[in-house]
Each structure stands twice: as structure tokens, then as C-alpha cells.
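Sequence in, structure out. Go.
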Amino acid sequence: MRALRRLALAASLTVLGAFAAPAMAQQILYEPVPPPGSAYLRFVNTLGAEVTVKPDFLAERRMGTAPEDRVGGFAVVEKVAGRQLRVELAAGTATGRASLTIEPGSFNTILIQPGPGGTLAALPVQDDTAFNQNRARLAFYNAIPGCADGSLMLEPGKQAVFQGVAPGKASARSVNPVTAQLLASCGGRSAPVFDLKGVEAGGMYSIWLMQPGGEPLAFVTRDRTLRWQP
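Output:
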């Protein structure tokens, strides 16, 4: 639980930026802390269409296809030990149901993906909580089902940032704040080159490789946690 609190607090503090007023920082320090036995969870839409997510433990949400609409914030889920978290999914005529089990004190990313027979599936990824407040944290998610060698490289030059990331998995590392162009690929196919910019020390960022509509897509988002209310 200590790692959960530290990472959640760090995520909140990065929203303020380096020049936050002391009063604002103090306010965040004294925001309500989730009770023991809680975990953090976010949903990510990897489909080619808008999806409706109906968890039995959080409010219903609709997730679009623009990069900023695909990735939700980490929300607190209480009393997760030994509990089945049920989710219903709907995108057009496709539907799906999932039952998730997550560990207390963990951060979890739920990838919404195509399932067997035209259904929808929810694939959980437990996130690495290692964090260095003096550097930026990058996590790379291979969200292309069945593609076993997700990679991320600097462009030009093809210097590897992440290699061999399995489908439905993530890899993370700490880096100095940089501006760069990145190329994500898997299975011999590449997404269009995209920019990594505005990276700050103490910030946490996720880089996504997915294949909505059959074409590789890669983009970066800044991680965020949603404020918990007792």
C-alpha cells in the first residue's frame, strides 16, 4: 500500500508542475488517502470504435477513438482482495463480459480488445510501480493481440528504447526529460512516427502501440490519477 500511496501522490504532484505554489502542494498532500486494501485501475480502448464500459465497481464510461479519449485515468477501487470485478463492454453490435482479479496496492491497466467470435475482451496488465521523482518514467504497452515483438525506437537512427515486449504486456524505464521522435513497430509493421515532447522530471508517461481497424497506431499520454472521495 505504501508504493500505491507514493506513486499516486507523485502522479498528483506532477500535475502542478515545477512552479506550483506551496499552498497548492500542501493541499494535495492532505487529500483523502484510499483505505488499505485498495488498488488503482484504468481502462484503455484499443478498438476501432467507441466503447461503453460498465464496471460493477465504478461509474459507467464511454471511451472514444481520439488518442486523448482512449486512455482513462487511474481510479481507486476499494476492497479488491479476493473480489471478482465484473465489467460489461459494448461497441456497436459487439459485446463482452469480463471478470477481473487485482491485487491490493497495485496499479492496473485494462486493455479493451477484440475477443473471440466477434466479442470484446478486457485484458489486465499489472503496472510496474518503480518511480524516480528526479527523472521521467516511460512505460511502453504492446496492445496488439498476437504480436510478440513490440518495439520502440528513436527516429532517425533506430536506437532501441524498448524491445521484445510481448502482446498484452508493458515495459517501463526512467529517462532524462527529452524531446524525440519515436517509431513503434511489431511483426514487421510500423505505426507512423510520433513526437515525444513536453516530458518533465517527475512525470509518468505511457506509450501505446495498438492496431485499431487493422492499422498500427502509436501515441503517448501522460498518466493521471482520479481524485478519490471517501
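Check: The first strand starts at residue 39 and ends at 45. The chain has one domain: 2-222.
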